[in-house]
């Protein structure tokens, strides 16, 4: 704990992601604030180059405001902060509105993408020290934090989020950059796109309606819900980015309710039961086989989760591979789709080196499945044990936040913070390279 004015104050922990930013206090099990990673901007009506208002947070972003553009704070290819001013607005909102504390009174631990650029992290350090007046700061790679959340220093971390899946080998608490593989082909966003397209096709080309695009009128003669009439309307000046954002939120909810992964890879053809889903405009759609087939891309043999796991492990030193195969962490919101961990295991065993035996089941806390594999990857030809550990749902969803929360509350960590005076003396580049490699 750092001490300010005689009081012990806990650190703030912020885990960044392209879908949501998770923020809270060190020592807590879950983030206190989960905010969408977007910002709404409205330009000045006289000077179109000047932003007159910013909107952050679920409620503010959901309100239909003419002229409001909705943009992601993070770059869709790299996941890095795209616009540091927007990120500053998000930080202000988190501190003022959601955590209710002052930035200058708490150390800040932030997560970062394992492939982040030096220039991006230097900009961030300058922002937090110079503009937000954070007293001390630390940046930690997301897969390393996921390891800490699971009590590990060495593991292979498969993080499947909204915009990308990133697979990283972590050894002795360090993320191995050369082993890191990132793809945007497998992520929550592409499943959302597939589902939105499917619904559109089933509705004869008509997109899902966002809440601001219609009202429901009840017939006075027939008061049952089926007699409700949908009246579509158009609000002048709403932007395409706002419409898309609003629709994608609905699609995201549908995905959570509908999508399932086939556990053994046998996506049945004829007899998958149809499930009816009521859209917010009251219309039902039925979906059967597609509930499973949409998820098949997660297990694509060229770029799916299991393939990336093997590829990442193969980029590591031969002596480390066996240990990585026996310490696999599957994290990120996209892995919460029912059936994903079991299927992942199934595919991994198929692809991993020779004769793997599996002991079920999955999905229990850090409980492992023991496989025996005849290894040809290391220097041994004998049977060795492979374990894969899959954390519980909540732990999978907030793994990096939880790891950050644990790390920042460890007594032994307190000397690791970059202080403002160190930042002033050494400059961003040097102190980050030294303290947050
Ligand atoms: N229960 C669930 N079932 C299916 N998908 C879910 C579930 N919960 C969250 N998701 C999806 O997981 C994704 C968000 O995951 P996560 O919070 O790990 O992403 P992120 O860290 O913000 O993004 P990234 O790591 O790609 O930058 C979204 O696509 C969301 O719809
Ligand atoms: Mg993430």
Automatic annotation (TrEMBL):
Sorted alphabetically, which SMART domains does this protein's record hold? ACTIN
Q: What domain of life does the UniProt record list for this protein's source?
A: Eukaryota
Record-linked Pfam families = Actin (PF00022)
Q: Which Gene3D superfamilies match?
A: 3.30.420.40, Actin, Chain A, domain 4
Transmembrane residues, as ranges?
none
The family assignment reads: Belongs to the actin family.
What is the protein's name according to its record?
A: Actin related protein
Q: What is the lineage of its organism?
A: Eukaryota, Discoba, Heterolobosea, Tetramitia, Eutetramitia
